[in-house]
Every structure is written in structure tokens, then in C-alpha cells.
Amino acid sequence: xxxxxxxxxxxxxxxxxxxxxxxxAGAWLYNKVATAALISYSQSQLxxxxxxxxxxxxxHGGEYPTGYGVLVWSGAISPELLVSPFExxxxxxxxxxxxxxxxxxxxxxxxxxxxxxxxYVVLVWGQPRTDSPDVLFAYERLRRxxxxxPLIYADRKVLFVPNAEAERxxxxxxxxxxxxx
Length: 181
What we know:
It is a single chain. This protein has helices spanning 3-22, 24-59, 68-73, 90-94, 97-102, 110-117, 163-172; strands at residues 120-122, 136-140, 149-153, 158-161. It is α+β, with helices and mostly antiparallel strands. Strands 1-2-3-4 form a 4-stranded antiparallel β-sheet. α1 (3-22) runs antiparallel to α2.
């Protein structure tokens, strides 16, 4: 566990004590900080995904992979990373990942399985690597009733934007927004 996660846990423990002491006001504050911590965690996951794709492109002729399968199969990212802290995916949790790691190539259908059941949508699959601040790289699936969603650009800039703005940016990048169920 890195220092950022330890600090987050300490802050949440202090807030839990506040809730115990202050009732409703403490609970409101706890919910705000807990949501901010989850948003930060999701943004960290997007950074890890960005790094895995960037490294893959560096080692494979400057092209991003065509899907998550090769990244999981090679150990560049773990299956747990594919699910947002705001969601739960029983399909990802129950999948036989041992058969992925022991096969000689990524199993057929793995990319599609992850796209259906994971939380993060990558927009640059199979494209040449870029550092352009204008290229929307990936985002967390939009969730109804949420304040917004994190996005990451090819230059590693992460933003948390309201859903309406996220929809506009995703469409401007030439894609239809993907919503969580």
C-alpha cells in the first residue's frame, strides 16, 4: 500500500470518528470525503491503464494494443484494476483468470468479456501512440445519478467532469458514451 492510500485510510478513520461524535453533520462530511477518495482511486486506476497501454505501445512498434486481453494475459494490469471503486462486477470476480495466465496467448473473447464487464472504456485501441493533450484516451463508464466521471487524455491529464460534459467530450472524440447498468 503506498503512502497516498495510507493517508486516505487515515482521513477516513478520522471522519468515521467525526460521524460517531457529531451525528448528521459528520455523516455528511464523511460521505463527501469518501466520494472524493473513490474518485481519486478511480483516477489512479485510469493512470495505471494509461501507463500499461503506453508501455505496450513502446514495446510493440508504437501501437496501442487492440484490447485489454493482452494486457491482463501479460500481467501488465490485474483484473481487479478493470472495475471502478464505484462498481462491483461479479463476472470479473468469478472469471477463471488462471486459464488466462496459463494459456500461450490471450483466450479468444477475452477482450469482449472485459469490455462488457469492466468499468473503463479505452478509446485508442490499436492506434499509434500519442502524447497529444487533445486526444481523449479513456474514461470510466458514466453512472446515472453520479456527479460525473473521470477522463484521462493521452498526455496523462486526468479530469473529473459532470456527465453532460463527459458525454460531449466523448462524442467530440467520435465515440458514443458508455453507461454503467
